[in-house]
Design goal:
It contains 10 helices and no strands. The chain has helices spanning about 1-5, 40-45, 75-85, 85-90, 95-105, 110-125, 130-145, 155-165, 175-195, 195-205.
């Protein structure tokens, strides 16, 4: 033992002063207390759901499937044919509006019809006190730059709409709504009329019945009375 101490003097350390080789390090970074998330712009924009209380936005079927434009059983070919008369005729009927909305979802352009519906609801406000919060929600959701559902509007229309946000009127979104209406009428509406699901509604007919079944007749002896038998000539 003494020899080992002479060879390695650095090991000559009293046991009472030994220190552990590894030390448990306290974490240098303290965990910050959990901060309650503040309501962001996205949460504020969720207020739009109050404006879109329409049945077509709350159905349980798969809206994205082209075959589910509408329930064929509830729409007759005659009714579907009327949708092709005009775009206004299509939107004026609930089933037509529902079918067109689902079609736009398949094209990922449903923000146009949602904006149009929000504007229709906005103009039906019963008091001027309802206009300001509704106008702010519509503007932040559909019109302002980088809005989550920004619609395609020209600069002049956006500017005019933005300037009227201080004291919104029932006509505040008329210009923007008309622009989006024309866009859907000239672009999306013709494609809707050419779509396979809509064409299938026009061709839907009740199942055709087969030819009437002929009832078999039983012959009796009386049916042959008075009939002379044919005699073959050999």
């Amino acid at each position: 033992m003494e020899n080992s101490l002479l060879l390695f003097p650095q090991l000559n350390i009293s046991a009472s002063k030994d220190k552990p080789y590894y030390k448990v390090m306290k974490p240098a970074i303290k965990e910050e207390p959990h901060k309650a998330s503040k309501p962001g712009a996205k949460q504020k924009r969720n207020r739009l759901s109050l404006l879109l209380q329409k049945p077509e936005f709350h159905e349980g079927d798969h809206l994205g499937k082209p075959g589910n434009l509408t329930k064929a059983a509830s729409v007759s070919p005659e009714e579907a044919g009327k949708w092709g008369e005009s775009f206004d005729k299509l939107l004026s009927e609930k089933a037509g509006l529902d079918a067109f909305t689902k079609f736009l979802k398949t094209e990922f352009s449903e923000e146009n019809i949602e904006f149009w519906i929000a504007c229709e609801d906005y103009k039906k406000s019963k008091s001027t006190h309802e206009l300001l919060p509704k106008a702010k929600t519509i503007f932040e959701t559909f019109i302002q730059k980088d809005a989550p559902k920004e619609v395609n509007l020209d600069f002049h229309t956006k500017e005019v709409t933005s300037q009227s946000m201080g004291q919104p009127l029932r006509s505040t979104f008329d210009a923007a709504q008309s622009a989006v209406y024309r866009l859907m009428e000239q672009d999306s509406y013709p494609r809707f009329l050419r779509s396979a699901p809509y064409r299938s509604l026009l061709q839907a007919r009740p199942a055709a019945r087969g030819p009437p079944r002929r009832r078999s007749r039983s012959f009796t002896v009386s049916d042959f009375q008075g009939v002379r038998p044919h005699l073959a000539v050999w």
